[in-house]
C-alpha cells in the first residue's frame, strides 16, 4: 500500500502489479476449466453413446461432444451446467424458496458462525488455562489431541442423536459439531502465541513486578494476535465442514449438506456440484474476511509495515 | 585480587540494612551461583565479594561466559544465587525487585512492537498504576532526556537500533529508580553510535546521580564510563581485580587519548590476562 502510493506513475504500476499477481491465478483457473471440460467429455461419452444407440440415431464426433456437455444427469457435469444451475438457484430463485441456494447457504452459515464463535472462545480459554496452569497441559493436551484423531463422520451422527434426545434440534447440534472441529487449531495456535513473547520481554515484566494478569493483557495477549488470526483462518474453514457434515445425518431438511445428500439420493450431479462450489466459495469468502480483519487489527496495533 | 576474608558472616558490615548512614546499594559476600543442567552443574559465579555504593558507576568487564550478565541478573532477582549473601538497597534482591528499586536495560531494546514509543516508555508506569496525565508528562520528560523528543507516536520498527535502545533507557528511567542495571546495552550497535551514546549516558549519570551497574566486554567503554571497574574471568566466573578510576565527571571522549586512561585500560587488560581470559 505505502510503496505504490509513493511511486509517481502509481496507476501504471498498480495495473502492472494486478496483472503480475492475477496472471498466474488466471492461468491455473483456465487450466482447471480445460481439464474439467475434457474430463466431462471423457466420462460422459460412454453414456452418451449408449443413448445414441438406444435412439438409433447416427452421430458424429461433434454430436457426441455436444451431447456429453448437455446431459441431465451426467457423471461429471460440465462447468457451464454448474454455472447455469448456480445462477438459477442463487439469483433467480426467491431466497425464501426451498430450492434457493442462498436459503440453504444461510442455514449452513448460521450454524458455521455459531460453532466458530463458541469454538474460538473455548479454544482461547483452553489455551489460557494450559499456558498458566502446568497441570492442565499434562491433563488436557492428550485429550485435545486425541479428540481430533476420531473421524468427524463417526461422531456427527452420535452428537445429532444424543442432542436430539434431550430436545436440541436444528442449529445447535450442527454448531456443536463445528465447535468440536474448530476449537482445536485455536487452542494449538494460542498456546504457541501466548508463549511467543521472548525471554527478555518476559524478564522486563518481572523487573516491574507485574502481576500474571498484567503480563497477560500487556504482553502475552498482544503477542498472540498474529497466531490467533492464523488459527482463525483454519478454524472458520473447518467450521463450515463441520456444519455440512452435521447436516448429513439429520435427514437432510435444509442446508448445503442437505443439498449434497438430496443430490446424491436422486443422482442430481449438477445439484451436488453447485452445492459444493457454493460451499467452497463461502469458505473462501470467510477466510478472506478473517484475513481482512487481521490486516485491520495489525494496522491498528501499529505492527503493519 | 579481591581476597576478602571469608566467611563474610563474621564481618561487622554484614548488615547494611541496620546501618542507614552507610550508602551501600549492592553488597555481595561469598556469592556463588550454579546452574543445574542436563550435563551436570555449571559454576557460573564463584566466591564473589562486591560493594557498590550510591552514585557509583560500576562496570563488569570480562570475556563471554565470565558470569557478568549472570551477576547483574542475580542483583535484579532474575537469577537465584546458590550460596553466600547478596543485598540490594539493604534488602534481598527479591524484596528490591518487589519494591521496584531498579530499572533494567537489556542487551536488546525489548520494546513491544504493538506500542508506540511513548506507550513503550510508559509501560512500567501503567503497571504501577500512575495516572495517564502523569504518564504522558514523564514520557515527554525522559524522551527528551535521551534526545527522542518528537518520536512519541512512532512505532519501534520505525526507529534505528540506537534510537530503540535509547527509548529502552528512557523506559528504565521513567519511574525514577535510584539504581540502573544495564546489560551490554550498546553491544549490538556500531562503534560510532556507541561512542555517542556513551557520552550521553555519562552526562545522564552526572546529571541524575543514579547508581549505575553496567555490563560490557569493551575495555574502552568500561574505562571511559566507570568510577569502578570490576574485571571478571570465566570458568568459574569470578572477580580478578577491582579498579577505581578518577576521571572528571564532565569528561569527553578525548579523555581516551590521555596517559591516565591508557594506564587504567592497561591494568584492565592485565587483569583479564591474569584471569586467563585470553587463553584458548
Task: Measure the end-to-end span of chain A.
Answer: 10 Å
N-to-C CA distance of chain B: 22 Å
> Structural class, from secondary structure content of chain A?
mainly alpha
Determine the mean pLDDT of chain B.
Answer: 84
Assign a percent range to the helix content of chain A: over 70%
User: What percent of the residues of chain B sit in helical stretches (DSSP H or I)?
Assistant: 25-40%
Order of helices and strands of chain A: HHHHHHHHHHHH
Strand composition percent of chain A: under 5%
Number of helical segments of chain B?
9
Average predicted local confidence, pLDDT of chain A: 87
Give the number of helices of chain A.
12
Biggest β-sheet of chain B: count, sense, barrel? 6 strands, mixed
Low-confidence stretches of chain B: 1-22
Spatial extent as radius of gyration of chain A: 25 Å
Q: What is the number of E strands of chain A?
A: 0
Structural class of chain B: alpha/beta
Summary keywords:
heterodimer, A: 305 residues, mainly alpha, 12 helices, globular, disordered N terminus, B: 280 residues, alpha/beta, three-stranded antiparallel β-sheet, 9 strands
Compose a concise summary of this entry.
Chain A has 305 residues and is mainly alpha-helical.
Structural description of this entry:
The complex is a heterodimer of chains A (305) and B (280). With 305 residues, chain A is mostly helical. Chain A has helices at residues 2-6, 10-55, 61-68, 79-92, 101-132, 134-147, 152-165, 171-194, 199-207, 212-247, 256-265, 269-300. By secondary structure, chain B is α/β, with parallel strands linked by helices. In chain B, a hairpin with a 4-residue loop joins strand 8 (228-233) and strand 9 (238-244). The longest helix of chain B has 18 residues, at 191-208. Chain B is globular.
Amino acid at each position: 500500500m505505502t510503496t505504490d502510493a509513493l511511486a509517481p506513475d502509481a496507476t501504471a504500476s498498480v495495473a502492472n502489479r494486478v496483472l503480475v499477481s492475477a496472471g498466474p491465478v488466471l492461468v491455473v483457473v483456465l487450466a482447471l476449466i480445460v481439464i474439467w471440460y475434457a474430463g466431462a467429455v471423457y466420462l460422459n461419452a460412454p453414456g452418451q453413446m449408449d443413448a445414441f444407440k438406444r435412439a438409433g440415431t447416427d452421430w458424429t464426433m461433434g454430436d457426441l461432444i455436444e451431447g456429453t456437455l448437455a446431459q441431465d444427469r451426467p457423471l461429471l457435469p460440465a462447468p457451464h451446467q454448474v454455472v447455469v444451475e448456480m445462477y438459477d438457484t442463487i439469483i433467480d430463485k426467491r431466497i425464501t424458496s426451498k430450492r434457493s441456494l442462498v436459503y440453504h447457504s444461510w442455514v449452513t452459515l448460521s450454524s458455521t458462525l455459531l460453532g466458530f464463535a463458541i469454538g474460538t472462545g473455548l479454544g482461547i480459554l483452553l489455551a489460557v488455562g494450559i499456558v498458566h496452569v502446568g497441570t492442565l497441559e499434562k491433563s488436557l493436551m492428550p485429550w485435545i489431541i486425541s479428540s481430533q484423531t476420531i473421524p468427524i463422520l463417526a461422531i456427527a451422527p452420535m452428537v445429532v442423536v444424543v442432542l436430539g434426545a434431550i430436545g436440541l434440534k436444528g442449529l445447535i447440534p450442527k454448531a456443536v459439531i463445528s465447535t468440536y472441529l474448530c476449537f482445536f487449531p485455536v487452542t494449538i495456535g494460542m498456546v504457541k502465541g501466548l508463549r511467543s513473547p521472548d525471554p527478555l520481554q518476559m524478564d522486563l515484566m518481572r523487573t516491574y513486578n507485574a502481576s500474571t494478569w498484567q503480563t497477560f493483557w500487556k504482553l502475552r495477549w498482544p503477542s498472540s494476535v498474529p497466531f490467533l488470526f492464523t488459527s482463525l483462518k483454519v478454524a472458520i474453514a473447518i467450521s463450515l465442514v463441520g456444519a455440512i457434515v452435521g447436516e448429513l445425518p439429520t435427514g437432510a431438511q435444509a442446508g448445503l449438506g442437505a443439498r449434497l445428500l438430496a443430490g446424491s439420493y436422486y443422482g442430481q450431479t449438477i445439484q451436488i456440484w453447485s452445492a459444493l462450489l457454493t460451499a467452497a466459495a463461502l469458505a473462501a469468502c470467510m477466510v478472506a474476511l478473517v484475513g481482512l480483519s487481521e490486516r485491520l487489527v495489525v494496522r491498528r496495533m501499529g505492527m503493519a509495515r | 585480587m579481591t581476597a576478602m576474608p571469608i566467611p563474610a558472616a563474621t564481618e561487622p558490615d554484614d548488615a547494611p540494612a541496620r546501618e542507614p548512614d552507610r550508602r551501600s546499594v549492592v553488597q555481595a559476600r561469598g556469592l556463588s551461583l550454579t546452574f543445574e543442567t542436563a550435563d551436570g552443574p555449571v559454576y557460573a559465579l564463584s566466591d564473589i565479594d562486591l560493594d557498590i555504593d550510591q552514585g557509583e558507576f560500576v562496570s563488569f568487564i570480562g570475556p563471554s561466559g565470565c558470569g557478568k550478565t549472570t551477576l547483574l541478573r542475580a542483583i535484579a532477582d532474575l537469577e537465584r544465587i546458590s550460596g553466600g549473601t547478596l543485598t540490594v538497597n539493604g534488602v534481598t534482591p527479591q524484596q528490591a525487585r518487589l519494591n521496584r528499586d531498579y530499572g533494567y536495560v537489556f542487551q536488546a531494546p525489548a520494546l513491544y512492537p504493538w506500542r508506540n514509543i511513548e506507550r513503550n516508555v510508559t509501560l512500567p508506569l501503567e503497571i504501577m498504576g500512575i495516572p495517564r496525565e502523569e504518564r504522558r508528562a514523564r514520557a515527554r520528560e525522559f524522551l527528551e532526556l535521551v534526545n527522542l523528543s518528537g518520536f512519541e507516536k512512532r512505532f519501534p520498527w520505525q526507529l534505528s537500533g540506537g534510537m530503540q535502545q535509547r527509548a529502552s533507557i528512557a523506559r528504565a528511567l521513567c519511574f525514577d529508580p535510584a539504581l540502573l542495571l544495564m546489560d551490554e546495552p550498546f553491544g549490538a550497535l556500531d562503534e560510532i553510535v556507541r561512542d555517542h551514546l556513551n557520552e550521553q549516558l555519562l552526562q545522564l549519570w552526572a546529571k541524575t546521580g543514579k547508581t549505575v551497574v553496567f555490563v560490557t566486554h569493551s575495555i574502552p567503554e568500561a574505562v571511559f564510563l566507570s568510577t569502578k571497574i570490576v574485571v571478571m574471568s570465566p570458568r568459574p566466573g569470578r572477580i580478578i581485580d577491582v579498579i577505581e578510576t578518577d576521571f572528571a565527571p564532565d569528561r569527553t571522549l578525548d579523555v581516551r587519548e590521555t596517559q591516565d586512561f591508557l594506564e587504567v585500560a592497561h591494568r584492565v587488560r592485565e587483569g583479564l590476562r591474569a584471569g586467563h581470559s585470553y587463553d584458548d
